[in-house]
């Protein structure tokens, strides 16, 4: 699996169980949505606090990252006519967490590659 990681301090708009995120770069979007690649590609977006001092805390015993990351597969997403990028919709339940990552890897191990589902 290949992961495209993005981070933003922008507060994400949420509607109908989906988080809106503007993905800049049509070439990047087309690469992520390609249905014929052998290695699945996933977009992960990390929403950070506006105060940089709140992003991470660490000690010899732990590393703590604040806020939340979400993942989405853009495989089979529709083409865009926008030249600067496109808005993608990330299901709010697709947390990029240890449990979420395990579930995704289990799905991929069964050759069940997730595809993009536009919100209705």
Walkthrough of the structure:
It is a single chain. With 120 residues, the protein is α+β, with helices and mostly antiparallel strands. It is 17% helix and 36% strand. The chain has 2 helices and 8 strands. The protein is globular. The two termini are 28 Å apart. The mean pLDDT is 91.
Strands side by side in the biggest sheet: 1-4-7
**Main sheet: strands, sense, barrel:** 3 strands, mixed
Q: What portion of residues is helical?
A: 10-25%
Q: How many individual β-strands?
A: 8
Q: What sequence of helices (H) and strands (E) makes up the elements?
A: EEEHEEEEEH
The structural class is alpha+beta
Averaged pLDDT? 91
Total DSSP helices: 2
Per the principal axes of the C-alpha atoms, what is the gross shape?
Answer: globular
Distance between the termini: 28 Å
Number of domains: 1
Q: What fraction of residues sit in β-strands? A: 35-45%
* Radius of gyration, CA atoms, in whole angstroms: 15 Å
Q: Which residues form runs of ≥5 with pLDDT under 50?
A: none
């Amino acid at each position: 699996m290949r992961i495209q990681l993005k981070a933003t301090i922008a507060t994400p708009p949420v509607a109908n169980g989906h988080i809106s995120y503007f993905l800049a770069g049509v070439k990047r979007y087309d690469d992520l949505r390609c249905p014929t690649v052998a290695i699945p590609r996933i977009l992960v977006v990390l929403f950070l606090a506006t105060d940089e001092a709140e992003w991470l805390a660490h000690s010899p015993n732990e590393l703590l990252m604040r806020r939340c990351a979400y993942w989405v597969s853009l495989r089979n997403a529709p083409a865009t006519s926008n030249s600067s990028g496109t808005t993608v919709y990330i299901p709010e339940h697709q947390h990029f967490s240890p449990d979420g990552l395990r579930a995704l890897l289990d799905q991929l191990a069964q050759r069940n590659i997730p595809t993009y589902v536009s919100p209705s």
